[in-house]
Amino acid sequence: xxxxxxxxxxxKILSHGQSxxxxxxxVPILSNVLLQANDGYLSITATxxxxxxxxxxxxxxxxxxxxxxxxxxxxxxxxxxxxxxxIDLSSSExxxxxxxxxxxxxxxxxxxxxxxxxxxxxxxxxxxFTLPAPVLSHLIDATRFCMAMEETxxxxxxxxxxxxxxxETSYLRAVATDMHRLACIECEAPEGAKDMPSxxxxxxxxxxxxxxxxxxxxxxxxGLSASRVxxxxxxxxxxxxxxxxxxxxxxxxxxxxxxxENDKSLIVSTKxxxxxxxxxxxxxxxxxxxxxxxxxxxxxxxxxAVSQEFGSAREEIDVDFSYTEAVEVCFNVRYLMEVxxxxxxxxxxxxxxxxxxxxLIRPVxxxxxxxxxxxxxx
Length: 378
What we know:
The chain contains six helices and 25 strands.
């Protein structure tokens, strides 16, 4: 193999690949990427056996071929080469060494046998549809902060995508929860999504596809089967296919949670509310239990927090809450902030009931985004 590739795009796809591979795997080959040069393209394949990423970039090929090299080492070498430079890659005849030359820099890497690199798992894709990259990014960004991180609740460690119909309209929904909070976001269902299987896309897959979406230059094709998900992305300077195993589990029935019967509506400026929470929450920023209290009555709300070590904070804000009976509820300040940061409307609505009931939060004027927070008892 002998090729010439421009550093910028080569480094970008290497960074994607090295984040997919298993860095601490007991199987050495899983820490490597497969480089294949033919037909005017360099393909880079990375896998951890649950996920596979193939990226293609056009290159100048003097001699086709393939090698298998350390993902981390190759990435680190390329990263430290001079910017705006062309990199020459050439392999030995037996494929055991890879020579990297750029300007006056020269590196030689050992290679593992190409035939030992695992084949990516393939399964028949039953449903395919396309989504604008900003729409898919929004579905991910507005839900992923609610994904669980507990290994024992593996079915919560991802985003649940499913087809949903309401009021004679079809939607594609993304839902995530850690049982303390829940995010439910929906968009108009794309053609081909009807009857799609309900799936749970794992946390690592979510993280990797989100990185790729930043470079997307065209709508993203999403393919699904009962066990796998695929994303086809056309980016500036390269193209990528990410395929991954889905979480094999049942996502909780969340529908009753978002149909809360809270009868007290509080409407507040999103920006003002987020800023007040941030200021008041400063006193509990180092606490194990970061609790913040909201007390609302007669178009006024008091946000307060108390730390036994650092003191207390209290702030009043104007709200639209025309009830003479006060409602007081306590929340995790970080959870509340993360929800407020996802709302991009000027005002947000909070549906309250009492100190023991969950709260529903949604943007004013946008019924397609809902958040549920469980109260704290301190």
